[in-house]
Amino acid sequence: MSSVEKNELMELLKTIAPGTKLRAGLDSILSAKSGALIVVGENEEVMELAEGGFEINCDFSPSLLYELAKLDGAIILSEDAEKILRANVHLHPRIAKSSTETGIRHRVAQRMARQTGVLVIAISHRRATITLYKGHLRHVLQDTGFILTKANQAVQTLEKYKDILNQTLNNLSILELDGLVTVYDVIKVIQRALLVLRIIEELELYICQLGSEGKLVNMQLKELDSGLREEIILVLKDYYCPNESNACEEELLENMVAYSAGHLLDTTDISRMMGYGSNAASLDREVTPRGYRLVAKTVRMPCHVVESVVDEFGSLPEIMKREIEELIEVEGIGEIRAKAIKDGFRKLREELIYDRNL
Prior knowledge:
Layout: H1 3-15, H2 21-31, E1 36-40, H3 44-49, E2 50-51, E3 54-59, H4 62-68, E4 74-77, E5 83-91, H5 104-116, E6 119-124, E7 129-134, E8 137-140, H6 144-178, H7 183-210, H8 215-225, H9 228-239, H10 249-260, H11 267-274, H12 292-298, H13 303-313, H14 316-320, H15 324-328, H16 335-357
Parallel strand pairs: 1-4
Antiparallel strand pairs: 1-6, 2-5, 3-5, 4-5, 6-7, 7-8
Helix pairs in contact: 1-7, 2-4, 6-7, 6-8, 6-16, 7-8, 7-9, 9-10, 12-16
């Protein structure tokens, strides 16, 4: 699934997540072992394909949706699902629109969605399922308890991989302070980060499906995700070698995440995307960090001040060997920040070595 399709699915899932009035109505219909066909949207094309039935045009309520579902025809809601517009409607989408479904209700729903582009919901009483259609998107809602179990498993996996990523980042920091970084060391960090970001994307999808039931999982995700993407962007700023046609660091990370969704990126793939070539020999090449990430770790200061320091001295080794008097000359760096940067590198090394020996 592409990032565009995933974002569209997440928006749909928010519309019918547990805790919403629409989901309450759908669950009532399903628990009563009834079927239904519901169109969420009233554009001109929908109305041209709708025949018969009767107008209601009243505020939405789950109980009213449940009662109207007892009728044979489809129900049409407003685009925001705040009003019930018509009920007992016969839908006539073009047969030329292909459908992969077998049941009549689901065929009509899929063709209607593909032809009009609106959200169409089909509830099957035999299979006890709720299926969403929008354009060429199709998604079957799963049981909330099952999704919650999957989400909790994903949180545990995320915690494990986040710990491994933190260890890899700490090792990279020590190598940077010692001037011993190779392309492979950088790529190893990016590989770990991509795995973590993929798990985060899965969790975000689960949280959308859980709605009000996913508040605790969402809190755990926010804690685990805090500052992660920003630090990986700083790693890319330190080592990315773009040419005129290449993307910026943020776009590069998005491209890597999107590509890794279908393929596990190997070391040569990442090396090529980072601008170091795709042959194995390039992995042993020594590289010098520009210093964005470690300077930002020494003392809290605005991004533009960090950039001023890096622009002035060019690389981390050059920044580390500068005296306080030289650091003060950089715009935005006063005496306090200059001392904090000098002391910060020493303290950072001590903390990293201590953590590694625990």
